[in-house]
Write a structure and sequence with these properties.
Blueprint lengths: L29 H11 L5 H12 L1 H5 L3 H7 L4 H10 L5 H16 L16 H22 L2 H13 L3 E4 L3 H15 L4 E2 L4 H9 L6 E6 L5 H12 L3 E6 L12 E4 L11 H23 L1 H15 L13
Parallel strand pairs: 1-2, 1-3, 3-4, 4-5
Helix pairs in contact: 1-6, 1-7, 2-5, 4-5, 7-12, 8-12, 9-12, 10-11, 12-13
């Protein structure tokens, strides 16, 4: 069943109507809250960003505030506060306050705070290594915390049974698309990652029910990725979107959406570099899940591929001189 995503502009119900304390499936895990704030803030309106940034900066203080108090603190409205809570995945502000209290308790427990790798031009190389390592770890943790495992399992099921899988991506996301394609090929599945946008669309025309199309796009709006996914969707293929923007155009044509972390872009580390880390994690999760489902055929196929390439891993003998 197709997922429905509510954009910030659509979630405009009154605060009291959204504050049901017993609403099901409210995510209270502190890691998940912190991850969602970092991931979704760039796609929010400016007023909603103020609310999200406030709760991320001072969860304990915000947990003690009423919806009116947080609205006054962030110079917004009660409706904006509640809309922000909903975008972050909570039925109402009361549920968000519970999660904030959990996040505050987690920080008091002594766990190190999240650090964003702001790399300066004059940073020594050892600092660059340390900052990038912290940032990569945070990106992976954020992606894992926010990943919808039900959607992941559904995508794995479709891939494992697919007659053929097409994977679309351009630029850095194109490299990730190629990575998934070659992984699937090595376990005996039919997979393509067309590098040419025109070829991607013409290939998508040939898809049908029982096939799978995967779109990988950090922005969720790359036309050369959205277009072939739309064609595949209309042809009846099962479609999967791997994106950092769950409110982007690509999700309109996705049966399953896998959200990646939205790492902050910096002058020395563009988004194309940082987003690839989370995309590769999702690809590895997909591949591992498919390998588990198809183990009886995947294991011999992997062994055969290793054997076929074994001679290429042997260093050539040095030439002898006479």
């Amino acid at each position: 069943m197709k997922e429905t995503f509510t954009s910030p502009g659509q979630a405009g119900a009154a605060p009291d109507a959204l504050a049901a304390p017993d609403a099901p499936d409210a995510p209270h895990a502190p890691d998940a809250l912190a991850a969602k704030v970092r991931t979704l803030t760039p796609s929010m309106t400016r007023s909603m960003q103020r609310v999200a940034e406030a709760v991320a900066a001072d969860p304990a203080g915000c947990a003690a505030l009423t919806v009116t108090g947080l609205a006054e603190l962030t110079r917004t409205s009660e409706a904006t506060v509640v809309r922000t809570a909903r975008v972050l995945g909570y039925p109402g502000y009361r549920d968000l306050r519970l999660a904030l209290a959990g996040l505050a308790a987690q920080r008091r427990s002594g766990r190190p705070p999240s650090v964003t790798a702001d790399i300066a031009v004059d940073d020594p190389i050892e600092d660059v290594v340390a900052k990038l390592a912290r940032d990569e770890q945070q990106t992976l943790a954020d992606t894992a915390a926010a990943l919808d495992t039900a959607q992941l399992a559904a995508a794995v099921t479709a891939l494992a049974a697919a007659r053929r899988t097409d994977i679309y991506g351009v630029g850095a996301s194109g490299l990730v698309a190629q990575d998934l394609a070659q992984k699937l090929l090595r376990i005996g599945l039919v997979a393509y990652a067309p590098g040419d946008p025109h070829l991607a669309v013409t290939a998508a025309v040939q898809l049908r029910a029982g096939d799978v199309a995967v779109a990988i796009t950090h922005s969720g709006a790359t036309a050369d990725v959205v277009e072939p996914l739309r064609v595949a969707f209309e042809r009846g293929a099962t479609t999967v979107a791997v994106t950092g923007r769950p409110d982007g155009p690509v999700v309109r044509y996705a049966d399953h959406v896998l959200t990646t972390s939205t790492a902050r872009e910096s002058e020395l580390r563009p988004a194309a570099m940082s987003s690839r880390t989370s995309q590769l994690l999702v690809v590895d999760c997909l591949f591992t899940g498919v390998t588990q489902r198809t183990y009886d055929t995947a294991a011999p196929a992997l062994a055969a591929s290793y054997e076929a390439l074994a001679h290429r891993r042997t260093a050539p003998r040095p030439r002898t001189t006479r």
